[in-house]
Amino acid sequence: MRFSIIIASLLAPYVGAAHDRESKLLRAVASAQHQTFEDFEIIVVADGCRRTMELVEGAVKVRSFLIPRGKLFSGGPRNKGIEEAKGEYIVYLDIDDVYGLDHLKKINEHLNYDWVWYNDLRWHDGWMENHCDIFQVGKHGTSNLCHKRGMGVLWTVNGYAHDYHFVRELLKNKNYKKIPTPEYYVCHVPGTGRLKGYDL
Hints:
Helix content: 10-25%
Number of domains: 1
Strand order of the largest sheet: 3-2-1-4-9-6-10
Number of strands: 11
Largest sheet: 7 strands, mixed
Order of helices and strands: EHEHEHEEHEEEEHEE
CATH class: Alpha Beta
CATH superfamily: Spore Coat Polysaccharide Biosynthesis Protein SpsA, Chain A
Radius of gyration: 15 Å
CATH topology: Spore Coat Polysaccharide Biosynthesis Protein SpsA, Chain A
Distance between the termini: 32 Å
Strand content: 15-25%
Structural class: alpha/beta
C-alpha cells in the first residue's frame, strides 16, 4: 500500500475549534475516500471521542481507533495512526480541512525521497497558494508533510508548535525535497473564526 492517511479527531469543544466539526469530519473523510489515486487507507484516531467512532463506523477504506483522551494537540492520536499504518508513506488530514481529488496523485508523482513537504491552499476571496516555511514556527502545519512510515519518526512534543518540532526530527534525514503544491485545502485557521471564509 502506498499511502496511509491519518486523521486525528476530537469533537469536544475547545478554544479556536472550527464550527460544525461533526459534518466537517465526514466531509474530510469523504474527500480522502474519493482520491483519483486509489492505493491508500484512511486511519481515523479518536482522541477519547466516542462520537467520532460512531460517525465513521463502516465507512469505506476507513479503520478507526479510540484512544484515551490526551492533552490538547497531543501527538498521541497521530502516533497511534503511524503505529497502525500499513502504507509506505504517511500523510495527514485535519478534520476541518479537505483534499482535492488529485491530492495523493500529485504527491505520488514526486516521491523519490524519504519525505517531502509542500504548500497548501487557503481562502483569500478564492483559493490561493499559501507559501509555507518548515524552518519557521507557525509557518506550516501537519498538512504540509508526507513521510515514509519506515523512518520511525514520532510526535513527541505536545501543544503549540508540535508540528514544528516534528519537522525538526524529520530534518535529521536529509533525503527530502519541497515538491509542487498538491491539493490540500485549509478550511479553518485557528484564531480567525469565520473571518474571510477561514471556517468554510
